[in-house]
Design brief:
Layout: E1 4-8, H1 13-24, E2 29-33, H2 38-48, E3 55-58, E4 61-64, H3 72-81, H4 89-121
Parallel strand pairs: 1-2
Antiparallel strand pairs: 1-3, 3-4
Helix pairs in contact: 1-3
Length: about 130
Amino acid sequence: MEKLRIYTQENCKYCEQVKSVFKENNIDFIEMSTKKYPKEWKKIMYMSTMGITPTILYKDFYFIANRDFQTPEQLVEILKDFEKPDVDNSILVLERTKTLNYNIMLALQNLNEVINKINNKLGGQDAPRF
């Protein structure tokens, strides 16, 4: 596995956990403190619209805590099998946007069902469907 970068903040316990799991799994990494590399960190925050640490850069892809992985162990499994896709970035963005839109639609439908159940228990009418 090629060396990766992990963007961290001081006093970030989750950053420490991820680094510890990396060491246990013999994963080479370069620690990038957000204080020492503010320009790079601002670029990442601008691109991802998320300022969450740890953020990992591996094979030109960013893996962000809670968005892309839930535990350090899950991250290690993702990274072990990760291959940079042989796909044009515009196709990748389009397909991810379609998936995101689909997931938002499902979430809104589920929310609508919950609202209808609550409304019906209160004696109201069904909420409009999306």
